[in-house]
Amino acid sequence: MKLPKIDYSWKQLGGDIFGGAIAALIALPYGLAMATLMGIPPIYGLFTSLISAPLTALLGRNPVLIGGTSTVTLPFMVSAVQQQGLAGCAKVTLVASVFMMIFSVLKLGRHISKIPPTVVSGFSCGIGAMMVVNQLRTILGIQPPAGVSWPSSVLGQLKAVSLYLGSAHWQPILLGLIVIACAFYFAKLNNKLPAPLMGVVIAVGVSLAFGMHEKEVGKLNLDIPPFMGFTWSPQEVFSLINEGFGLAVVSSINLLITSRVVEHFRGRHRPMRPSDADGELGAYGIANVVCGIFAAPMSVGIPARSLANVRCGGTTRISNLVHAGLLLLFLGLGSEMVSKIPLPALAGVTAYVGIMLLEWGTWRRLRRMTPVDSGAFLATAFATLLINAVAAVAIGCAFYLSRWLYHVMLARPRSAGVPDAGAALHPH
After folding, report:
1. pLDDT tens, residue by residue, 201-210
2. Is residue 17 a part of any domain in this protein?
3. Quick one: which H or E segment has residue 67?
4. For residues 251 and 73, is the Cβ–Cβ distance under 8 A?
5. Sign of the torsion angle spanned by Cα atoms 267, 268, 271, 274
6. CB neighbours of 31 closer than 8 A, spacing ≥ 6?
7. What CA–CA distances, in Å, run from 179 to 175, 199, 382?
8. 252 SS3 class
9. Sign of CA dihedral 83, 48, 63, 363
């Protein structure tokens, strides 16, 4: 019997390895930070990626979409953890996962996938700007005074950066700029090169050569904290249904919009098939059930990791599996090597991906776009940056809803059979 030909080249394998590697590097500090903000042991932020990646790689519809802990889930996770600790994290994740699978069965994902392209572009632009702003503190090496917490809002961060700009240091700025400049240079030289990863390697070399002592990723501990388990009471079920439903809605919208942005970034401007959107929700619902069992936070699509994966050459599901495998390897065998990577270098990778997301082509076409299209793009971009992803998508779609209602109102008198002036003057 003749075996089927596998259409997978060594070149694709190299791209998937490089893409998965840079995604894993970005996941390290980001996952640890997200778990800390949620109030749970930092290692659980990485367990989300380790647990969900193999499942979403096998069951998901977007081959290069990489999941993990996200700021969009933060309010729900913080609330659950404050009430019940690690058990609250497990419970709300499990409830939200069930709702995601229900959304998939009811085929609700296909409606989210119909969001207009200008809203998707605006979301991409807002996320990109947010990624750049979030890295300014690390790239500039700003250290606020003792006892002063760093704000979480974008406007608050910009204000804090301007306030403490005098404490910036040239070493982290140099390392961040080296990564960004090298990434752009190598990407222009050959778009198949793992440009951001090469920038990180060069930045690490410069740091070692000149004896820079910037804050590093640090040694990581893979010890799993004890999970105490949990029980369900009738009162908790009703409160968790509300929180779980809200978390599922926010996660589903963020997941499918991020998937659209990733496809747009890959140069595929056609919307995903309806069944793909529904299937993506189902895949992440199943993956998050497993995350909840192990008390890991909710997993959704992460733009920074997914787009860095694409930019470094990732093209297939293998890149997602490599991301999880290398993440586990970094935590175990390679923790000493990874611990020496300066945080400004990783911040430079995220900032580079953010700059790529700023939709420069849309800004150039802005004056030629219709008022509704340009308004939807701008409103979505700024709302993503200043409010949140779900509100931004709703605001952007409201422009098209308003236009539709306007046309309906104009057409109503004629369609309702209202006689015109000629008919009134010449009755039959």
Report:
1. 899 999 989 8
2. yes
3. strand 67-68
4. yes
5. negative
6. 42, 45, 46, 48, 49, 68, 69
7. 6, 4, 27
8. helix
9. positive
Domain membership of residue 216 as a residue range: 11-222+232-356
- Cβ-in-10-Å burial (0-12, 13-18, 19+) of 212 comes to middle
Residue 397 placed within a domain: no
| ∠ Cα 42 48 53 (to 5°) | 145
Q: How many residues are given for the chain?
A: 428
**Residue at 403 is within a domain:** no
Q: Which residues of the chain have pLDDT under 70?
A: 1-6, 113, 192, 218-228, 267-272, 333-337, 413-428
User: Under 8 Å CB-to-CB from 246, ≥6 apart: which residues?
Assistant: 76
pTM of the model: 0.76
- Provide CB contacts within 8 A for 65, sequence distance 6+: 56, 258, 259, 262, 280, 301, 306, 320
1 lies in some domain: no
- Cβ atoms of 320 and 20 within 8 Å: the answer is yes
| DSSP state for residue 300 in the 8-state scheme | E
- The Cα-based distances of 180 to 17, 21, 309, 350, 357 in angstroms read 21, 17, 16, 9, 14
In the structure encoding, which two tokens stand for residue 161, read together? 């950066």
DSSP 68: E
**Block residue for tokens 């952007």:** 396
Instruction: For residues 375 and 302, give the distance between their C-alpha atoms in angstroms, rounded to a whole number.
Output: 26
Q: Where do the DSSP E strands lie in 224-345?
A: 300-301
Q: What is the pLDDT of residue 49?
A: 92
Separation of alpha carbons 198 and 208, rounded Å: 16
Q: How far is CA 14 from CA 37, 169, 187, 329, in A?
A: 35, 36, 16, 18
Phi-psi map region of 386: left, alpha, beta (phi>0 left; psi -120 to 50 alpha): alpha
pLDDT tens digits, one per residue of 272-287 = 677 889 999 999 999 9
Contact 95, 243 (CB under 8 A): yes
Contact 295, 92 (CB under 8 A): no
| Structural domains in the chain (count) | 1
DSSP at 191 = T
Residue 174 near residue 206 (C-beta atoms within 8 A): yes
